[in-house]
Design brief:
By secondary structure, the protein is of the alpha+beta class. The protein folds into two domains: 147 residues, Electron Transport, Fmn-binding Protein, Chain A (Pnp Oxidase, Chain A); 77 residues, Alpha-Beta Barrel (Split barrel-like). The protein is built from seven helices and ten strands. The two termini are 35 Å apart.
Length: 254
């Protein structure tokens, strides 16, 4: 993927992008220092960066952690940010959380599961203590990588940021744009560099700073950010900016 613009438009801060990937809770892989890459049954990243993971009781990492009380192991969790529409390269970004992992037991495991259930109810949490072991990953560092760049973060930077206000609705909106409003995508493509307008233009991402389009050409993909005139925070403000980009004369009032 390449950046085709000579001057990069405004974009979310790396910590905000990391919080957004964490909040979207895409496909994840746990990579312990000694062991093989595995997909947890469930993962949830708290605002502070501490992460709850569920693994089957019979998993080798669980057995290793139970060999001695309060044992910890170094591990990294990789979370992928997947595009909401089918693309030949669907991963938009990656978040890596590196730290120390430990198994939770009894009341501590139940409290950890309930803390997640309060903000993200999930039936898989009921398996804690009944075939699934709760693990806690305490972060030491984080790295976010996407089309905007790669950046290392401290846990306190991650904790001080907030996810993008549209991250919970982005998938639905972009799928709707792709399926029901291909004409709108065509209008938005007017903002692309001229050399890219002949490619296959797809909606890629949406945040408070702008819209991202993926241009698939014969041999390469290009991600282009189209900036709003100002950061937005509500659906009404977002609608006004999208209509402005489309060239609609009937802009919503601000």
């Amino acid at each position: 993927m390449s950046d085709t613009e000579t001057r990069r438009p405004p974009a979310p801060h790396p910590a905000e992008r990391a919080r957004t990937i964490a909040a979207r809770s895409g496909p994840a892989a746990l990579l312990p220092q000694s062991g093989t890459r595995t997909s947890p049954l469930l993962h949830h990243v708290h605002p502070c960066g501490t992460t709850l993971l569920l693994l089957p009781d019979e998993h080798p990492l669980v057995a290793a952690l139970w060999q001695e009380p309060h044992a910890e192991a170094t591990a990294m969790l990789e979370i992928a940010d997947q595009a909401p529409v089918p693309l030949r390269e669907p991963t938009r970004g990656l978040l890596w959380i590196t730290g120390w992992i430990q198994a939770l037991d009894g009341d501590e495991a139940r409290r950890a599961a309930l803390a997640v259930a309060d903000v993200r109810p999930d039936p898989r949490l009921l398996d804690v203590g009944h075939g699934a072991t709760a693990l806690r990953l305490n972060p030491a560092s984080l790295v976010v990588a996407d089309a905007e760049g790669t950046c290392s973060l401290r846990p306190e930077q991650f904790a001080e940021a907030a996810p993008d206000p549209f991250c919970r609705n982005e998938d639905h909106w972009l799928r709707h744009l792709e399926i029901a409003h291909s004409d709108v995508v065509g209008l938005l493509a007017r903002h692309l560099p001229e050399e890219l307008r002949g490619g296959n233009v797809r909606p890629l991402g949406l945040d408070r700073f702008g819209l991202r389009l993926r241009v698939e050409t014969l041999d390469q993909d290009h991600d282009v950010r189209i900036a709003f005139s100002r950061p937005v925070g509500t659906p009404q403000e977002l609608a006004g900016e999208l209509r402005r980009l489309m060239g609609c004369p009937f802009l919503t009032q601000r």
